[in-house]
Amino acid sequence: MPTITxxxxxxxEGHAKVTIQLGEQGEVQSARFHVTxxxxxxxxxxxxxxxxxPALMARICGICPTSHLLASSKACDDIMAVRIPxxxxxxxxxxxxxxxIQSHALxxxxxxxxxxxxxxDADPAERNIMGMVRKxxxxxxxxxxxxxxxxxxLETLGGKRVHPGWIVPxxxxxxxxxxxxxxxxxxxxxxxxxxxxxxxxxxGQIESFRAEVRSFANFPSMFLAMANDTxxxxxxxxxLRFIDANLNIVADHITGTDYLNYIGxxxxxxxxxxxxxFKPLGLTxxxxxxxxxxxxxxxxxxxxxxxxxxxxxxxxLERHSVLSSFYYHYARLIEILFSIExxxxxxxxxxxxxxxxxxxxxxxxxxxxxYLEAPRGTLIHHYRIDQNGLIxxxxxxxxxxxxxxxxxxxxxxxxxxxxxxxxxxxGALNRVEAVIRAFDPCLSxxxxxxxxxxxxxxxxxPDGEVLDRLLR
Amino acid sequence: xxxxxxxxxxxxxxxxxxLGPMAIERLRSSRSEAELISCHxxxxxxxxxxxxxxxxxxxxxxCDGEPGTVHMERLTADAExxxxxxxxxxxxxxxxxxxxxxxxxxxxxxxxxxxxxFENGERISNQACKALDEICRIVPRLLQTFPAM
Lengths: 472, 149
What we know:
The structure holds two protein chains of two kinds.
Chain A: E1 3-6, E2 16-22, E3 28-35, H1 41-44, H2 53-57, H3 65-80, H4 86-118, H5 129-135, H6 137-158, E4 167-168, E5 171-172, H7 178-205, H8 210-215, E6 222-227, E7 239-243, E8 249-254, H9 259-262, E9 263-268, E10 271-278, H10 282-285, E11 288-289, H11 292-298, H12 305-315, H13 328-347, E12 367-374, E13 377-385, E14 391-397, H14 399-402, H15 404-418, H16 426-438, H17 443-446, E15 456-460, E16 466-471
Parallel strand pairs in A: 6-11
Antiparallel strand pairs in A: 1-2, 2-3, 4-5, 6-7, 7-8, 9-10, 12-13, 13-14, 15-16
Chain B: E1 4-9, H1 19-29, E2 35-39, H2 47-51, E3 55-62, E4 70-75, H3 91-102, E5 107-114, H4 126-145
Parallel strand pairs in B: 1-2, 1-3, 3-5
Antiparallel strand pairs in B: 4-5
């Protein structure tokens, strides 16, 4: 039985491959997304002082270190049993918003825009950032500028664009200066202009991608995101909530270690990436999605003027929840708009320059959990410490793990629609890659379960017979 | 006075790969008049600043060659290196981006120091130290001799 392998998947964060198993008549029988790298952070942090965790965990990834820094610091706040100062919380929220802006801008403009601008069937040699520069230089300049805005905020607050510091257990290490605030505020009008232009352009393109809308992981599933009392968009504060495809709340007010009752993790034989599932329904039926699509389905309003206008239009796509994962791209742009607006509001609050920005305490609990909405979805850091404050165990559930089952659904759905017979067209393979890209998977931080999955290399004959197998 | 930009890049936590950022730090303390940038990797965000310059020197570490030696290569704008890894670009692709998006590709040179130890850690090898010394001798001379270099 012939197998098609796409290796590596391009324009994603990390290394992965896809195998597509064909039947005798050339029809797609199965398709799998394999993550082929491992990081091992849950293991290597054992024995380290818990206060080191934010800086250590930020090294998981060069794309979303700020998200890990924040979730880890929240877990440490929990261990210390402190409520951080209000100014510190506002400053952390700004960091999280800046991270969402720069990460979403990278995903939309650098990684996915070549597909939209040049078409899914375009020559792969052209369908990249240089092709985009030639076809639409203004959009390329805008994309660079928008990502730069997010990075500059991270650098202004955290000292560095990649692996910033500043966020610490108990708050942040030092207050914001008025000059720094004004520098960021001065860049906001241009960032909003770019985002609105990208939204207008993307909305005009959707009609050309009807086949992709129909087939890109377009299926009823549950969604997981953070929620709060106001039902506004929430990326930093709140609890976890599951909703179903009809927007009914399935599980709510999940805090602390409660997540263990709702989220199961399953190891896969063919990937270093674990699959999570909604525990009460089991692995097969408990598929859910996280990230921009889940968050926009979850909230009743964004809470900012322009993002709310866009959200109202977004909701008109479907009667209930928006189910096609192609719309992750659309949701990302709305989230950028929201993030810029919310950041402006926070920066204009007089308390943002407050000098009480850190609570100090020793460990008061042996266990701590931090939740956060990272750009790609819900991020959970859970630590247990011993009497000396050293890490006994760490559990991290990362957005791409939450989405793993949905990504596999999408790969199979797309392969069945676009891969026909034994001849593979570039456009078909690119659509398989593009459905993965819609989730913006970040594989570096999602494959942290060192030692829990064997390395399995199989040599298959054309008829599917296993000729050789190496297990390690 | 020509506008010069020095970009040292590499991972400061992977031994000799820190050679580029370390060169920038040393040149900063010697009060170089060039604009200095230290970064993990080359991203498209650098293109706009490059386009505003007459000369860009990229400083990187490599494992190809005799450890301790330094190599220089003149760069020209070239989109062929672009591939699809869009958040880690080749210097020649960055030059092409500077030209295509901002209207000017400066003269550019890639200076690489050959290291021998790229494992986890913040110390560099003796060979990388030798290459670092050499780079810090070469760069001021290049800046002085530009545009005749």
